[in-house]
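Before a colleague's protein record goes any further, I have to sign it off. My question to you is simply how this chain folds and whether the tokens agree. I do not need a full report, just your reasoning and any doubts. This is what I was given:
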Amino acid sequence: MSELSQVKDSRSTLAPDDPRHGTANGYSNRRCRCDECRAAWAAHYKAWTHRTARATPREDYFERRRQQLVHGTEAGSKRGCKCGPCRLAATVARWERRQVGEVRTHNASGYANGCRCEVCREARRIYQNAYRKRLRAAASRRDAS
């Protein structure tokens, strides 16, 4: 047996008669690096990248994703669209949630969502005091240096 074939055989973690040789499973899950498994993985990966549009340039991929958005919806805004109709839809949706008074948690975020109960007001007061304290500390460190 030549030295080159011994090196190739040492890259295989599967038994020589294993039926998983030459499959993407043999390469990815069984970590076999024989020539057959490597070729199977290359074919599998190439098909996957084209099927999932990973082979397209980044700008083209994101442009296609933007075109798939339904503009003028809150979902469009959540997916990253910054057009006027999407931003307006997100603003209106937030406003409507606040008008309904649907507050799931009573804390500083409850205050931000429109709740003015005593618990939410106290949580907001504590949050604001801590925020102002952090700002003063940062300003004093900046002045000291």
